Structure formats: structure tokens, C-alpha cells
């Protein structure tokens, strides 16, 4: 994935004093031996033996425990992920999340690195702590460009930062996020906007702490009118007081004008194009249309996966 910048980075809102204060907080994470005992991977006696050997050997706890045959490398990776506030691949596999959510499963894949680089740019350009800048619409020129795939993975990487993240599936033409995350889709967004459901339609995602998803719900006959109602704006305002980051998946621009309406409510948009398919002229045209309505177009990203 590569990015095409169309705006200048914003100033960050975090002061040096705040950053220093956060950096000086003591590390209270449990030791790896304690975590392995709690997980049933090692006994207290085995931990004591490893600690004893550590006094004479220049090696890490995990390396010694593996050498003694107490645990495997997978066991070490599992507790290290938890120790650093992340999620292990074993935890994710047990949660039965689909493998297409690659940033959660394989952090070293080229796409995973690219989506994190995109996250960094978005943190500079929009999610910088400025009031009113917590919602971003993800749209594309045409269907099949991968906007829903990018939106899902962006939701994951923001939640991995410790940000309370909400992914809203506002594509009420061809919704996919409920299938991507394996959640039920009884009433969803369409039910909330029509007054038939409430915020309890938001689902937390097992295995991905910090990430919640509001599925699209039943397909309404009038999605554009439903999204244009004041209720949608009020919903985003209410959710911004609960979530740090709100990612909104929209229909493609060529498919419907819903994307325009959603982007106006979000106040900012990211355009997704498909490599070797979407023409730069099409991205430029869509960007101009959105900007003419006062929407902050943060850039475009080319998806090749």
C-alpha cells in the first residue's frame, strides 16, 4: 500500500510535558514468569529454576525456559504480546476471527507495516486530539477497490494503540463488516437511525480489546435519506464522547452519493483506490467533489491486496 498526500500534516496537540509525564510512569506489567504460571504453562518450581540459571547465564528468561523444555517459543510469544499490551496470534486464532484481518494475525506482513504507516499519517493529520476530529469516513471511487478491507484493518491498528475505536458499517448497499468480524447483524445502524434500536447494537470484538463494531443492519429502501437525517449526526457526536477514534465504512462514490453525505457528517475522508485499476484522475475528481462541500480529504491510499 502506498499513500498520496493531499494535505499538510496538522500540529500535534500533546505537549512535551504530557509526553514526559507519560514516559515516567512506572512499568507495572507482571513478569513473564508470573504470567506463564498464571497461564498454566509453567510451575513455580520451574520459574525458580530458570531465575536461578539467569544469575549465571547471559540469556533471557524465555530462552532458558525453552532450552530446559519447560515451554515453547509460541508460549513465550503469547505472554510477550500480553505483556506489551498486544494480542497474540494464538489468542486471535482462538477468537475465530477470519484470516483476512491480516494486521491482527500477521504483524510483519508488508500490508501490516503499510497500514501502520497510514495510521501514523492519520494521527498527524486528523486524530491529533483536536476537538471534533475523531471521525473519519473511508470511501472509494468504485466498488471492489478494498475500502471495507482497509477500514477494518485501520480499526484494528488504532485499537492496538490503546485507542477506544469504533468501526461503523455505513455501507447500507453492500455491508460486509459483520461478516468480516463474525458478529450478528440484527438491527445495526439502520435500526438505530430509524429509531428501532439503540447503542446496544454496537458489538465488542473478542480477541481485539478496544475495538467495537456497529454493523449496517437490515438494508433499508432509502439509505441516503436515512443517513442524511439529523439522527446520524447526533449518533456520531454521542459516540465521539465514548470512543477516541471512529472509522466509518461508506459505499463507493460511483455506486451511490451516500459517501458524500457520510463524509459531510464525519467532516473528513480518506479515499481508497486499487492499484493498477483506479486512475489518478478519478481520485482527483472525487477529492475535488468532497472538498467542494467543506470535507477535509486527508489523502488517498492505493490498495494492492
Task: Please describe what this structure looks like.
The protein has 15 helices and eight strands. By secondary structure, it is α/β, with parallel strands linked by helices. It has two domains: 54 residues; 206 residues, P-loop containing nucleotide triphosphate hydrolases (Rossmann fold). Strands 1-8-7-2-6-3-5-4 form an eight-stranded mixed beta sheet, with helices on both faces. The longest helix has 16 residues. The termini are close together. The N terminus is likely disordered.
Sheet/helix structural class: alpha/beta
Shape: elongated
Query: Roughly how many Å apart are the termini?
Result: 8 Å
Examine the coordinates and then state which fold CATH places here, giving the name of the CATH topology of the largest domain: Rossmann fold
| Number of structural units classed as domains | 2
Number of strands: 8
In round numbers, the mean pLDDT is 84
Please name the defining characteristics of this protein.
single chain, 305 residues, 15 helices, 43% helix, 13% strand
Short description:
Helices cover 43% and strands 13% of the residues. The protein contains 15 helices and eight strands.
List the helices and strands and how they pair.
Blueprint: E1 2-5, H1 16-23, H2 32-38, H3 44-54, H4 61-67, H5 73-83, H6 89-94, H7 102-105, H8 110-125, E2 135-140, H9 147-159, E3 165-169, H10 177-180, H11 188-193, E4 203-204, E5 211-214, H12 223-228, H13 230-240, E6 245-249, H14 258-266, E7 268-274, H15 280-291, E8 296-303
Parallel strand pairs: 2-6, 2-7, 3-5, 3-6, 7-8
Antiparallel strand pairs: 1-8, 4-5
Amino acid at each position: 500500500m502506498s499513500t498520496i498526500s493531499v494535505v499538510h500534516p496538522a500540529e500535534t496537540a500533546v505537549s512535551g510535558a504530557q509526553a514526559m509525564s507519560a514516559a515516567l510512569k512506572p512499568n507495572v506489567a507482571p513478569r513473564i514468569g508470573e504470567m506463564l504460571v498464571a497461564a498454566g504453562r509453567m510451575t513455580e518450581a520451574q520459574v525458580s529454576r530458570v531465575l536461578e540459571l539467569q544469575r549465571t547465564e547471559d540469556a533471557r528468561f524465555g530462552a532458558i525456559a525453552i532450552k530446559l523444555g519447560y515451554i515453547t517459543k509460541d508460549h513465550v510469544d503469547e505472554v510477550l504480546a500480553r505483556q506489551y499490551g498486544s494480542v497474540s496470534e494464538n489468542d486471535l486464532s482462538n477468537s475465530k476471527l477470519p484470516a483476512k484481518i491480516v494486521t491482527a494475525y500477521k504483524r510483519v506482513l508488508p500490508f501490516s507495516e503499510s497500514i501502520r504507516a497510514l495510521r501514523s499519517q492519520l494521527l498527524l493529520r486528523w486524530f491529533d486530539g483536536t476537538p471534533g476530529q475523531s471521525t473519519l469516513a473511508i470511501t472509494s471511487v468504485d466498488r471492489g477497490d478494498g475500502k471495507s478491507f482497509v477500514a477494518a484493518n485501520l480499526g484494528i491498528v488504532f485499537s492496538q494503540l490503546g485507542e477506544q475505536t469504533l468501526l461503523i458499517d455505513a455501507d447500507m448497499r453492500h455491508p460486509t463488516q459483520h461478516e468480516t468480524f463474525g458478529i450478528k447483524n440484527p438491527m445495526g445502524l439502520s435500526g438505530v437511525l430509524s429509531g428501532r434500536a439503540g447503542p446496544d447494537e454496537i458489538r465488542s470484538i473478542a480477541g481485539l480489546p478496544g475495538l467495537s463494531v456497529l454493523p449496517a443492519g437490515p438494508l433499508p429502501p432509502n439509505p441516503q435519506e436515512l443517513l442524511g437525517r439529523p439522527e446520524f449526526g447526533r449518533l456520531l457526536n454521542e459516540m465521539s464522547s465514548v470512543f477516541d477514534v471512529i472509522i466509518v465504512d461508506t459505499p463507493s462514490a460511483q455506486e451511490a452519493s451516500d459517501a458524500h453525505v457520510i463524509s459531510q457528517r464525519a467532516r473528513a475522508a480518506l479515499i481508497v483506490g486499487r492499484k493498477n485499476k483506479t486512475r489518478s484522475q478519478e481520485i482527483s475528481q472525487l477529492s475535488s467533489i468532497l472538498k467542494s462541500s467543506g470535507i477535509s480529504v486527508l489523502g488517498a491510499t492505493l490498495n494492492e491486496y
